[in-house]
Amino acid sequence: MTSGETPVTLTVNHKTYRLFINSSALLLNVLRDQLNLMGTKYGCGIGECGACSVLIDGELTLACMTLAGTAVGHEITTVEEVGESPVGRVITEKFLNHAAVQCGFCTPGMLVAASSLLQERAIPSEQEIREHLRGNLCRCTGYAALVKAIQDAARELHPDSERRPHAG
Amino acid sequence: MMPEVGRKLPRKDGVAKITGREPYSHDIYLPHMLYAAVYRSPLAHARIQHVDTSGAEALGAVCLTPFDVPDFIYNERIVSIPTKTYKDRRVLPTIARHVGEAIVGVAAETEELAVRALQQIRIDFEPLPAVLSTAEALRSESPKLYDRIWLGDRPIDMANNIAVERHITEGDPDDGFRGADFIVERRYTTPRKYHGQMETKAAVCQPLPNGGINVWATVQSIHNVRQVLGQIYDIPLSKINVMKLALGGSFGSSIQMNSIIPICVGMALKTGRPVKLVSPREDDFYDHAHYQTEMVLTVGVKNDGTFSAAKMDVVADIGAHHIQADALLGVMAGWLASLYKWHNFQFDGKAVYTNKVPTCALQGFGNHMVNFAVEQHLDIIAEMLGRDPVDLRLQNYIGEGDIFWGQGPSIKSVIQSCGVEEILREGSVRIGWNRREKPVDKQGRYRRGLGVARGFHTSGTGGPKPGDVIDYSSATIKVNEDGTVDILTPVVDHGGGTGEAIVKIVADILHVPYHMVELSDVDTRTTGYDVATHATRGVYCGGGAAAHVAEKVHRQILETGARILQVPTDDVTLAHNEDYGTGTHVFTKSNPDRQLTLAEIAKTAQINSWGTIAATGSYRQQSAPPCFMGHFVEVEVDTETGEVRIVRAVLLSDAGTVVNPDLLEGQLMGSFARGVGFALQEHSETLPSGALAHGGWLTDYRMSTSCDVPPSDALEVYYAHTYEPTGPFGAKGVAEASLSSVWSAVANAIYNAVGVRMYDLPITPEALLEALNAPHVLNV
Questions:
Q1: For domain B17-128+198-249+254-285, is the CATH number 3.40.50.450?
Q2: What's the CA gap between A39 and A106, in Å, rounded?
Q3: Tens-digit pLDDT profile for residues B236-274
Q4: CB within 8 A of B558, min separation 6: which ones?
Q5: A44 lies in the same domain as A20
Q6: What per-residue confidence (pLDDT) applies to A168?
Q7: Could you tell me how many CB contacts below 8 A there are between chain A and chain B?
Q8: Measured between alpha carbons, how far is residue B460 from residues B223, B251, B499, B727, B764 in Å?
Q9: d(Cα B468, Cα B474) in Å, to the nearest integer?
Q10: Integer Cα distance of B422 and B435 in angstroms
Q11: Which residues are paired to B453 by β-bridges?
Q12: With an 8 Å Cβ cutoff, are B10 and A147 in contact?
């Protein structure tokens, strides 16, 4: 502990960590530098690209825009945990089978974003998927394979559901 | 065994990448590591008189200044042969030549401390006048960026800001123009644009007790980075190891050793500790861009639709460093020469230094710029002749049996596979070309138009004779004692699936299933040389080298099998049959019941101490074949706002045998999304101060989001049925080709919608609206 650092307790992927952090420390850097959770990526640092997507109490959140201190008392979930969840496993398989991953740098953020969408909405429309992914930039794929993979994952997770008409 | 080449199979690194477990250069953390940050010039042109690092050092930081680095001038790109390599750069310069040029490196215990220390750096600058456009740079009274640069080991004293000129002629252009029935001349411009790879440049360097270094960095070529570092820091190559990691996209932006790598190395050597340097996105924007070009194209046309001559004048704004401008001008001439039968042609190119962000390749290296001019020109000529644009292309394209300039005038091949005709005919059917109307027939606020453009790119830079560009690749392949196979390839995969393609090629040669062949983690110590993953050469050249080595391994398997079976080698065959163990087996032709599985052969060889079945080697492809491409696009123009919407598009490629069909589709889709962004919105504009208009913020450099690209059912892909006889299993490249004609097709479609020809990119709503509102344009 150096001057300016304070002890905090963070709950990440159901584990509790006691850490010393600076009041200006970003969640992104704490996850990567202190907890060795490399799946949360740095792409822009200004909340524009979505590579650092995580869930806080289940809500899709950008770790580069979140002070680590504000996450105290909340449940932080990173891609490492999402990838092991039932929904995450299905999306991972679909990303793989639809060749939705090329360079892969944006893909963990895409997995977190897609999983949060499928938790909220069983069978989203293509337009809903595109709007949900709007904050996650991908320079390689042109998004088509990602969208198809998420549609396929939704169908597999909810085989009996009919897509409800999209409002608007 | 069903061939693995051509099957849809999950990529080897897929699960690791998706779930965040694949390490990129950002993800390397070493014990006792320092974090670094870079002080960058606030001025476009300034002499650095003094650097005061005391404030930073008082915070515990270690600083690397221009006065600490070797006084060594180099070019960070060594793809060209040494005598064709221009050099103007130091690790840290004593004269800053663009806003954002790195001047001081700072390393500290934490990233935050490094950034705080950075703020304490004080520099006495002597501001120098800057030149921020090629027009300004070319004026005789303008200040020069350099007094002296180097070509290989030869100094060049600079009289002006022209970095290099190239004049390339074929036939007799003057005579050709005299024989024309009419001549069409237009001026086209393409802007500076940013690669937008998702991973910003990063490097981690670990100094070693023996004076050597280990380097983990964002690279397209591990071997070239090792060699440049060896030159700069005078370290034997045997003591430098550069690791191959996943690359978070590149699009050409790491064809050279990234500028931060030698800074990171310098700080590691100075501190004696591992140092990590990750570029913030803003720094990355100031580190590289793609060339801005002005092109004047003149074509002599005969009334029968043939051409008698073409002439292109190019002025390229290369920014503050000459990374590969000499090669750029050569390939631009080559792309022009290889698109249509001009019969006579002349290319005059100038690459000009300006005090702007340095420029390097971007997916196609001059290809899409030339394409923008030529493919719009073809439509203009077709209209003047009263001809259909598709027919005029079919009449004049360069195809099978013709010469293709794969990489400028020194690298030429005879075309042996060509899908141009299939692409143009199939695209016409799929888009509904016969419903295309003239712009004058369209009315109303929203107007739709159809456009076509065709392009190509090379597959590597090989050929029977060495050219100006180095091209060969290497591989090591070994058979394990259980019949599985390891491949060691230095070829870096940008994400397009080069690695999977190499696995499939080796799998099919050895008759071993895809799931039993793996790519090893490698570095410069464990691999032979590969020039770089550039020039769309990964599958064709990297896969070609792997195929060459796999054939050697195949022979060894037969020899070992025959030895065990005690029959002559020519009496055995390697095959795959699910009935035998893991499937791969050697059987005796004269008695098919006598057979051994590959695992039995490898294990027997081990038990008998005969040695490992393995081979290594290097291989140069003897050709550089074109992969052809076509785009048919339907747009809708809102004549009140100037906004352009892509209604439909058909993306057609000629990649020879398709090795990874799903990843090829992904490349075509991704290139289309980037191409539409480049056509309609992306521009890395420089302000009069030399700063970037978007400030280096991703928010203000708009790349396509999931909502900007057309819905899935609006895009269709098609693969021409060709076979490249010189490629592994008939394959050639595709990557860069897939971008080549996107923006040309969009521009042609816009013209067909509203009758306005857009000569300057990007075609923003503002620009289109201004053109639409010019007098006598719209039919009201």
A1: no
A2: 10
A3: 999 999 999 999 999 999 999 999 999 999 999 999 999
A4: B569, B572, B573, B574, B586
A5: yes
A6: 38
A7: 194
A8: 17, 15, 16, 11, 34
A9: 20
A10: 20
A11: B631
A12: no
> Domain residues for A112?
83-157
- Nearest chain A Cα distance for residue B489, angstroms: 18
Task: Give domain status of residue A130, yes or no.
Answer: yes
- CATH code of B472-619, in short, is 3.30.365.10
- pLDDT tens sequence across A117-127: 999 999 999 99
CA gap B55, B122 in Å, rounded:
8
Tell me: the pLDDT tens digits for A71-98?
999 999 999 999 999 999 999 999 999 9
Specify the amino acid at residue B534. H
* Residue intervals in chain B for CATH 3.30.365.10: 289-463+623-772, 472-619
Same domain membership, residue A87 and residue A73 = no
Q: Tell me if B707 and A80 make a contact (CB, 8 A cut-off).
A: no
Selecting from B698, B707, B711 the residue whose C-beta is nearest the C-beta of A48 gives B698
Q: Is there a domain that residue A37 lies in?
A: yes
Q: Is residue B55 scored above 90 in pLDDT?
A: yes
Distance CA B656, CA B457 (A): 13
| Contact in structure between B346 and B311 (CB atoms under 8 Å) | yes
Q: Which amino acid is located at B597 in the chain?
A: T
Nearest by CB to residue A39, choosing from B10, B19, B698, is: B19
Single-letter residue type at B388: D
DSSP 8-class letter at B166: E
Neighbours of B450 (CB within 10 A): 24
Top residue of B198, B669, B736, B738 to mutate, by most chain A CBs within 10 Å, is B198
Q: How far apart are CA B380 and CA B301, in angstroms?
A: 11
CA B478, B480, B484, B486 dihedral sign is negative
Domain presence at residue A144: yes
